[in-house]
Amino acid sequence: MVDLKQNVQYVKSVGPTKASLLNNLNIYTLNDLLTYFPREYEDRSKTKNIADVIDGEEVTIQARVISEVNITRIRKNMVIIKTVIEDDTGRCTVTWFNQTYIKQRIKRGEMYRFFGKITREVNHLEMRNPVFDEAGKEKNTGKIMPIYPSTYKLSQTAIRQAVENALLMVKGEDIETLPEYILKNYNLEDLQKSLQEIHFPSNIENRLSARKRLVFEELLVMQLALLELKGKTEDYEGIKFSKDVKMSDVMNSLPFKLTKAQLKVLEEIDNDMESNKPMNRLLQGDVGSGKTVVSIISAYKAVKSGFQVAIMAPTAILATQHFEEFKKILEPFNIKCELILGATKPKQKLEITEKLANGEIDVLIGTHSLLTENVVFKNLGLVVTDEQHRFGVRQRETITNKGNHPDVLVMTATPIPRTLALILYGDLDISIIDELPPNRKKIETYAVTKRMEERVNNFIRKNIEEGRQVYVVCPLVEDKEDDDESLKEEKINERVGLKSIEQKENTERINQLEIEEMKIEAFKQKADLKAVKEWTEIYQKQIFPDLRVACVYGKMKPKEKEEVMEKFKNGEIDILISTTVIEVGVNVPNASVMVVENADRFGLAQLHQLRGRVGRGEYQSYCILKYSSQASQVAKERMKIMQETNDGFVIAEKDLELRGTGEFFGTKQHGLPEFKIANLFVDMPMLKSVQSVALKIESEDRGLKQEKNQKLRKLVDEKLKQSISL
Ligand code: ADP
Ligand code: MG
Question: How many angstroms separate the alpha carbon of residue 153 from the centre of ligand 2?
Answer without folding.
Answer: 42
